[in-house]
UniProtKB/TrEMBL annotation:
Subcellular location: Cell membrane
Protein's recorded name: Probable membrane transporter protein
InterPro entries, A to Z: TM_pro_TauE-like, TSUP
Keyword terms of this UniProt record: Cell membrane, Membrane, Transmembrane, Transmembrane helix, Transport
């Protein structure tokens, strides 16, 4: 029963964040799902539910999508996806998550210190590639895109719209790659189905919150989520 309650809370909070910010589900859910499930199961549950959220929201946010950046993200991710699944299958997950946590913390610190990045076509491709690597390896496409968009002072509407549209592609592609190369299980799909009603509630609450979040609060929330993810992954691996 305790596991079910914890699972429900994780999915609800992550769904609210994903809907209101465009990036919160994998960042919030994956570290905690790894406490409840094996790495493969946690990653695939995250991919399934994140895909559902992206499908549910795509029509609402299509006017905010930057199509040119989106196309470059997708092209870049095509190179990152096979690299990510190779890392997942071959590399020790503890080492991988420790490396990711340090990278997130260093880059977030740069953002807090007002480090800024100029958006270019080549950097769009590179960020899409890193996002592809992160998705098939640890189920978290958000950090590279979030760090990039935050560094370029992108508006919250454009960030949410473009990110959710990209997730529609990257989560579907990553789920297919994961299932094909790493296999799947009945528990993954049963757990995902059980979580769907909670996701619907999170979608509703998140849509309401998005209208009340200012650009400044949005940026601060971004930093908090990134710091939380980096610190949590780091502490989890060194204990």
């Amino acid at each position: 029963m305790d596991t079910i309650v914890l699972f429900s809370i994780i999915i609800l909070v992550a769904s609210i964040l994903q809907t209101s910010t465009g990036f919160g589900f994998s960042i919030m859910a994956t570290p905690f799902l790894l406490l409840l499930f094996e790495p493969r199961d946690a990653i695939q549950i995250n991919l399934v539910l994140s895909l559902v959220i992206s499908i549910a929201l795509i029509m609402k946010i299509k006017k905010d999508i930057d199509m040119e950046i989106l196309k470059r993200f997708i092209v870049g991710s095509l190179f990152g996806l096979p690299i990510g699944i190779s890392i997942f299958l071959m590399m020790d997950m503890t080492v991988l998550k420790l490396a990711v946590s340090v990278l997130i913390l260093v880059l977030t610190l740069l953002l807090v210190l007002k480090f800024r990045i100029r958006q270019t076509s080549k950097r769009d491709l590179l960020v899409g590639g890193f996002s592809g690597v992160f998705t098939t390896s640890i189920g978290m496409p958000g950090p590279p895109i979030l760090l990039y968009f935050s560094g370029t002072d992108t508006t919250k509407e454009k960030l949410r719209g473009t990110t959710l549209a990209f997730y529609l592609w990257i989560y579907l592609a990553s789920l297919l790659v994961q299932v094909f190369f790493a296999g799947t299980s009945k528990e993954i799909w049963v757990s995902s189905a059980m979580a769907l009603p909670i996701v619907v509630i999170g979608l509703f609450i998140g849509q309401v919150l998005f209208r009340w979040i200012s650009q400044d609060l949005f940026r601060k929330l971004t930093y908090v989520l990134l710091l939380f993810t980096g610190i949590y992954l780091f502490v989890q691996q060194v204990q």
